[in-house]
Design a protein that fits this description.
Length: 201
């Protein structure tokens, strides 16, 4: 069944990306429907993370077009790019938590430093997001180094959902976890994506 234009959240058209002689993409096309989840599967070094970074705007394609909600986003001004970025939530492969910040400050980082929300309100929202991933208030004042790998992933997921994004990206979210913990994280991701009604890659 084909999507109409209004059903498509992310559209990629004829995207090329190379690093020197390494041609990662040679004309990739992809559509992700609104509220749908898509899994990109491939071996190490085949371009999964590069694809996410191109959509996020962390990398610029050599050619082609990336469209979010019908708007081409590859060459936006910083102000317009920030508006698009506000739609995104991201769970990074390694967790990417800040060692110097407490758990709640990691979760609330975007609220504090991008959205300008006060510390009291940001802390409340961080606690609510942590509760959604089955972590209690007892972890809020801890540092990331005091958490297990699975707990760090949960904190990363809490950070990804705290701003209630429309689009969520997951870069190998269960890498390095044992099978039982990986299954827990997968279930949490599915539950949170469904609760938000988000589009997920």
């Amino acid at each position: 069944m084909s999507n109409t234009d209004s059903d498509i959240k992310i559209s990629i058209r004829d995207v090329h990306k190379s690093f020197g002689s390494n041609h990662v993409f040679r004309g990739i096309d992809l559509d992700v429907g609104t509220g749908r989840s898509m899994v990109v599967i491939g071996g190490s070094g085949t371009g999964k993370s590069v694809l996410l970074k191109c959509i996020l705007g962390l990398l610029t394609p050599d050619s082609g077009c990336i469209i979010i909600d019908g708007q081409p986003v590859s060459n936006l001004s910083p102000t317009k790019r920030a508006k698009v970025m506000a739609k995104f939530g991201m769970l990074f492969q390694g967790g990417a938590l800040f060692d110097s910040l407490k758990v709640w400050e990691n979760v609330a980082f975007r609220l504090l430093y991008a959205d300008g929300i006060g510390r009291k309100d940001a802390k409340k929202r961080a606690e609510a997001a942590l509760n959604q991933v089955n972590l209690g208030a007892d972890v809020m004042a801890l540092s990331p180094a005091e958490l297990s790998g699975g707990m760090q992933k949960r904190v990363g997921l809490a950070r990804a959902i705290v701003a209630r994004p429309e689009i969520m990206f997951f870069d190998e979210p269960t890498t390095g976890l044992d099978p039982i913990t990986a299954d827990v994280i997968d279930n949490l991701i599915r539950r949170q994506v469904t609760a938000l009604g988000a589009t997920a890659v």
